[in-house]
Design brief:
Blueprint lengths: L1 E7 L27 E7 L34 E5 L16 E6 L4 E7 L18 H4 L6 E3 L5 H8 L4 E3 L6 E3 L9 E3 L1 H6 L13 E2 L2 H5 L4 E2 L2 E5 L5 E7 L4 E6 L2 E2 L12 E5 L2 E4 L7 E4 L2 E9 L2 E9 L7 E4 L6 E2 L4 E4 L5 E2 L4
Parallel strand pairs: 3-6, 4-23, 6-7, 10-22, 16-23
Antiparallel strand pairs: 1-2, 3-5, 4-5, 8-9, 11-20, 12-13, 12-24, 13-14, 14-15, 16-19, 17-18, 19-20, 20-21
Amino acid sequence: MKKFIVLFSCLFVVSACSGGGSDPEVAEAATTSQATTSTVASTTSVIETTTTIPLPLAPLTGLAFEGDEAALSRPAVVVKVDNHPRARPQTGLDRADMVIELRAEGVTRFMAVYHSDLPEPVGPVRSARTSDFDILTALNSPAFAYSGANAIVDRGLGGLGIYARYEDRVDFYRDRNRNSPHNLYVNPQGLQDKLPSDATPPAPWFTFGSPEEVAAQDRAISGEVTVVFTGSPIVEYQWDRAVSGWIRDQDGQSHSTISGDQLAPTNVVIMSARYGVSRADAASPELISVGSGALTVLTDGRVIEGTWSRIDNTRAPAIADLQGNEIVLTPGQTWVMYPDRGVIVPES
């Protein structure tokens, strides 16, 4: 604000003189007008405008990313995580952008995908299977951490154009307080740092929407959903409003992390699928993830039925409701499951 100071100063002097020798002296009278100061304010309105630059979104979670945006241009790190009873509780599953669950021999295993967050450590790490190939190719050029594989699987991984690494003494270590083979852990950041400069980040697998877009979808209310794999744990999900997630149980027990926190993904995408016999091992099931099938999606406390489809192994699956509309997920962690025995959804 500018101020203008105006100064007015006037001095008036009136003098009277004597008219004869005998007349009394007439004193000089003086009248003074004091100086005054006046402030005139000029008011200027200043309108401040703030431009908000939206934060970038992590492609696999749809969440705003507050870190260095350059990190989102880096490739993902995929870790093959053990789900044997002796491997639980696991470390790092709660911080994955996305977790993919598929059959192995008598158990399920996880492909934990890390991109917007790289915790240290993650594990226990287990061996690769041919089922992993068509998942990895839909993540562009990730690093892949596993504990080993037979010669056929190793050759297959070598032809995928990814950075596949198994146990070394730099980024992997054994926890001697746990029994082998369920005690191998990895540092995802170390693997990502070794990727070539031309390795590319993952593309989004799903579409994430606003609360209004998610709520507008045609869906049924259901408090609990059961997922069944052949020869593997029975998995149950139950909506927990307090954590805005689907708490996960296996065989009637809470599935928690090493820190004691129960796993509770924001979304669960359940794609009923077929398994064939692995080309590398007749005892190993091989997921057939290209094709189509029945779908159940859990998001925001509701269940959406639909279908999934995938036209080739370089693309993520498309998910749609029974009317053919694309299903929109709530931003956050997503678990993708490929059961072969189906999904049980209680009637609401």
